């Protein structure tokens, strides 16, 4: 049976949700594993878009004691105390956003004239507490290192109502926050952008801007093969939803991944 911290490490991004859960145990040796997989993500073309897309993504994960690599989160380490408190630090990347339809990152044709948001190297720090084997809380900050796109913050609550040797069910709700630079990078419209795109000027305020909620299920067929499925809903508050770029403030998502752990 997996620990709640083991499940949390895989819960964001969701496609990496439970790659090592088949072998997770309380001793450090059981944390060492290498997993490959392929997954599909169905969701909006960008935050606030009313257009959906299906994207195929690889899943690559490796863990050696406290160190890990994740193809979507990056390179990092996590430390956990006996009382359930833990710290996670990662060095990763953000893909930014295109002003046209893109097969590998967020973007849509209706953003033409807004310009591309550059991909960036970032660092993230998370501090959390596994209160019980089925309840976890966490706070996280993600800061860009190679481009001034602002800082994103989030607080999350995770419930694990079901944990067996072969099945794990997880519900997670995440409150999203951003400083003014982050909000204007992804939801604002500057004067130059307005002239090029014909969208109205919009200055987004920093602060709370949305909630992501997800229900995830993992099933282990045997010691190597597993499958992860999730359904979710993203809701944008007025700080983001009032942007002329946002065409829909509620967006559904779905994900499916097949995983093989060596």
UniProtKB/TrEMBL annotation:
Would the keyword Membrane turn up in this protein's UniProt record? yes
Where does the record say this protein resides?
Cell outer membrane
Highest taxon of the lineage: Bacteria
Can you name a GO cellular component term?
Answer: cell outer membrane
Task: Look up the coiled coil feature and give its residue ranges.
Answer: none
Query: By its UniProt entry, which Pfam families does this protein fall under?
Result: MipA
Asked if the Swiss-Prot or TrEMBL record annotates the protein with the keyword Protein transport, the reply is no
Signal peptide residue numbers: 1-24
Primary place of residence? membrane
> Keywords in UniProt for this one?
Cell outer membrane, Membrane, Signal
Q: Where are the transmembrane segments?
A: none
Instruction: Enumerate the InterPro entries for this protein.
Output: MipA
Similarity annotation: Belongs to the MipA/OmpV family.
Q: Which PANTHER family match?
A: MLTA-INTERACTING PROTEIN-RELATED
Q: Which protein are we looking at? A: Outer membrane scaffolding protein for murein synthesis, MipA/OmpV family
| Organism per entry | Kosakonia arachidis
What does the record give as the organism's lineage? Answer: Bacteria, Pseudomonadati, Pseudomonadota, Gammaproteobacteria, Enterobacterales
